[in-house]
Structures are given as C-alpha cells and as structure tokens.
Amino acid sequence: MPSLRIRNGDKVGDPIELGERVTLGRSHECDVQIKDIESSRVHAELFVRDGEYYIRDLKSSNGTIVNGTEIDECALEHGDRIEIGSIIVEFIDERSAEAEAPGVDVADEPAKPAPLPELPGYEITERITGDSLTETYRATDEAMDRAVAVEVIDEASCSDAEAVLASIKAAARLEHPAVARIYAAGRHKETVYFVRELAAGESMWRLCGKLAPDD
C-alpha cells in the first residue's frame, strides 16, 4: 500500500497509508496535517489516476515542490520528496520499488570459478587448462622468482599415485629442446603435483604413460 512518511518537524513517525484522495495542509480537517506556518490551510492533494498516484497543488500561497521543482500537478514515484513549507514528506510505493529491482534468477548467474589451489613455495595465479584428470596452473616460484606451470593430479583420479610420481621424476631426467623441463614434484593434500617450465605443449604426465583413470 502506498504511503507518505514525514521526514522532519513534530510529525515525524510511521508511514501514513494513502486512500484514493488525501489532502495535505495546515488545517486539522486535512487528512495529513502539516503544522508549518508556510503551509496553506488546504495546501495540496494526492489522488489516484489510472492506478498511479498524482499530487496537485491547491493554489497554495507558497507552492508545492517535488524533488526541488515547483509543480501544479505531477505523477509521483517511489522515493519522491514533497516539500510543503519547511516540511519534507516522502512518497513510498513499494510496488514500483519491487518492479525496478526484480529478483535475479539463480540459473542466470554465471558459474563462479573454482578456487585456485595452494602449494607451499608457489603463488598460483591462474588456471591455464584442465580435464577430468589433471589441472594446469600458471604460478610463480617464490624462491627463484620465475614463472612456472604447476600441474595438479587428484590422487582419486589415478590408480597408483606413487607410480605416477616415480614416472614424473624419471621424466625430469629427460633433456630435449621439445620437452619442458621439470623443476620439482611431490604430493600435497591428496594430490600429486609437479612444477615445470612454463611452455606450450602436451601435459608431461601423458608422456610418462603411467597415469590412467580407474576403471
């Protein structure tokens, strides 16, 4: 239900619900009495037209001001400030407020990216790629101050984590211009990881040939 709320003076209080026609002014006969010397006895009226509220000045001595502009008649919107003399009255219409701020359908919200893993000694900054078995991240080796790639393998995705780790360590001994160098490898929080040179190419665990999903 639309209402008015007096914002200053001695009538500050709860919202005043509106009917089809409401008069405002200094007279005690008005629906909303405005106790201000600059208010006329019957200063203005609010009325409904086509389902919307309007305000009309009733030839008052000092005029009716809405949002800083003196008006003869105008439509009201939620949050409009009406000045009658020195008294400020706010028009409240929750119907229009709700229409202007529709709820967000959760299904329309973009999916939030998964949090980046943490690995001691490395600042992981970005996910590069991944599949059902491994995830590759861009990171900084904090001790050496260099950019590296960190590949993380969930132990639940491989049949033998120790065998995978052994294969990675064996691959680290390879030296070839087409093969990214492996700097470190280990296990951390139920994952196998290795740190390699940041370069384009196939994930090293595929070259090892030891990692396969459980049947």
UniProtKB/TrEMBL annotation:
Domain FHA: 22-71
Annotated GO MF terms: ATP binding; protein kinase activity
Domain Protein kinase: 122-215
Entry-linked Pfam families: FHA
Residue stretches in coiled coil: none
Protein name in UniProt: FHA domain-containing protein
